[in-house]
Amino acid sequence: MTVSKVQLKAISYLLVFLFIIMIIPLHLFPCFVAGFLAYELIISLTPWFESFVGSDRARWVVVTLIAGFVVIAMIFGITSLTGFLNSGAEYRINVTLAINRIFSELKNHIPDYLPSFFPESAEELKEQIFTLVESNLIIIRNMSRTVLHGLVTIFVGLIIGSIISLNKPSKYTTYFIQQLLERLDYLSKAFRSIVFAQIQVSLINTLLTSIMILVILPMFNIFFPMYKMLIFMTFILGLLPIIGNILSNIMIIISALSISFTVGGVMLLYLILIHKLEYFLNAKIIGSRINAKSWELLLVMLIFEALFGIEGLVAAPIYYAYLKTELRAQDII
Fold first, then answer.
1. Confidence class of residue 15 from pLDDT cuts 50, 70 and 90?
2. Within 10 Å of residue 153's Cβ, how many Cβ atoms?
3. Please, is 298 exposed, middle or buried when counting C-beta atoms within 10 Å of its C-beta (0-12, 13-18, 19+)?
4. Closest CA to 26 of 183, 181, 192, 153
5. pLDDT digit string (tens) for 198-256?
6. What's the burial of 303, exposed, middle or buried (CB within 10 Å: 0-12/13-18/19+)?
7. Average of pLDDT values for 271-296?
8. To the nearest whole number, what is the mean pLDDT of the chain?
9. pTM for the full predicted model
10. How far is 87 from 118, CA to CA, in rounded Å?
11. DSSP type of residue 215
12. For residues 314 and 236, what is the distance between their CA atoms, to the nearest angstrom?
């Protein structure tokens, strides 16, 4: 029994559909993102090196540079964490004094019937944290396992993406293989559009945050501690849709509270405005790249968040961009 080309094409659609849907329940979405990111970086950077080292060696050079960057970043992260954990007593005293000052500001600005919900010193905060950890050991253990699994799958994804980028396409392929490769090529284009759009959104978010930290607040003689690191982390974490923005905002608000409660409140309001602006800006920029209206992306993001949680929220623009690419290729839209 022979299978027609229409059936083979339908099977290729079905396989790719099952693949992109199942990677979230199987907790392989970090691997998917890391693999495609490595592949797209290598493919995009290779033409820049071909004129210097030749077309045969260019991809190997790019892979080596990316691998070196990852190793250096890991070493820097481990060294920074080790240095923080082994920091001297004077540094820990300064941190404790800063925390005590924050709680003192909170106590002065919040009505008398609310401070009972807040710790009054760094020591009381430490006791509450230990109590919280002891009562949620199982949840913390599961979260640690999830984080470790995510890091491992990211590393595996980087390796797989690099290996795929180094493989040369076979000269002989069947019709079914051609259809699968076409599906994956459309998925790759959709991923590339979303990634470049997210970089653009992160740059705008970082610019708006920098204006507040470097221009507006210094006009009132207010200077942020470690402002360079905060701005850098705002851009890096901003590359992660939604969740990265939340993490960077938490860092900025904590730093603002170390100055005063008033500065912390002002930064909280400012970041909320930026966050709301970014939510619609994200949909607008990504929508312009995949010819989708803002309301379409917002609706898809809400549906995927309800189905798959945070991972679904991140995956929604990529999947919807792929769907639009496929429909456009078939002249359906």
1. very high
2. 21
3. middle
4. 153
5. 788 888 888 888 888 888 888 888 887 777 778 888 888 777 666 677 778 888 887 78
6. middle
7. 71
8. 77
9. 0.71
10. 27
11. I
12. 16
- Tell which residue, 258, 257, 255, 234, has the closest CA to residue 246: 234
Q: What angle do CA 264, 265, 270 make, to 5 degrees?
A: 95
3-state SS, one letter per residue, for 32-86 = HHHHHHHHHHHHHHHHHHHHHHCHHHHHHHHHHHHHHHHHHHHHHHHHHHHHHHC
Q: Report the SS3 class of residue 257.
A: helix
CB 29 within 8 A of CB 196: no
Q: Which of 169, 170, 163, 156 is nearest to 60 (CA)?
A: 163
Instruction: Output DSSP code: residue 12.
Output: H
User: 16 near 24, Cβ under 8 Å?
Assistant: no
The tokens for 25 are 């329940």
Nearest to 213 by CA among 263, 175, 260, 286: 263
Does residue 91 have a pLDDT over 60? no
